[in-house]
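Sorry to interrupt, but I need a hand with the structure work. Please put the record directly below this note.
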Amino acid sequence: MTEKLAIIGSGPAGLTAAIYASRANLEPVLFEGFQAGGMPGGQLMITGTVENFPGFPDGINGQQLMANMRQQAQRLGTRLIMEDVTGIRLGSRPFEITGMSGTVVQAGAVIIATGATARRLPLESEKKYWSRGISACAVCDGALPVFRNKELAVIGGGDTAVEEASHLTQFASRVYLIHRRDELRASRIMRRRAAEHPKIEIVWNKIVEEFVGESTLNGIRLKDTKTGDVTLLKVAGAFEAIGHTPNTAFLAGQVRLTENGYIETVPGSTKTSVDGVFAAGDVQDAQYRQAITAAGSGCMSALEAERWLAETHG
């Protein structure tokens, strides 16, 4: 039997799409994922307290927020499949999706909400202090009490790194922007913003050799890329801003991507280059990358899929 709608991805975008689609009687099937692109539930599963998602005045644990969304989608009628998608055919309808255990689902419409994975430094000490002083999202975590009025570090040299550093200046006493070269990769206006900000100090020609601390992070050992010297920078928090990788490999070129690898959507819409295929959340958003914007685009994708199916008679 052909399903009306299949959703791929179980972060805020995918689960919000499932909630709206379920309430529209589309009886969606949702591939939660298993390991590819991170754990089911998306990046909030490795986030501590979420303070900026509306409706939780005291904040909410990231895993609990995703558990709530999952339970809501399931209660409304979403069928969940905890498998990675290993193959997809979008050349003709019904579309066909294959899971890692051989599960095959045919669907009249598809919503892709597979997110983007934050690139992280391949260090054992990074894993040790992840969520205990290390984060990949200053906008998400920078305002937490543990970071306020403390010296913090941002690792990276692009526009995102400068934006993260600038955001942190609202809370930190000082922000160190650590870059491996002697010139930032950021745009000219962003380079000037970093250089002129009184709270930002750019640390040139340094790479992270090790994160150090006790129960939480309290410093970074930095290696000079020219001299090889190692120094200790005392900070209470470190934010990795070295880019994101959209989880689109399984599409095998069947949907048009941007030059940065994100799914290209029609402006103001979640429509992709394939009629009947929609994209929501971080897999198509290289700018905001927030849970609330992902949830919003998930809502949009479900509404658009519902209209499209009605117009094409499913």
About this structure: The two ends are 13 Å apart (CA to CA). The first helix runs from residue 12 to 23. The longest strand covers residues 104-112.
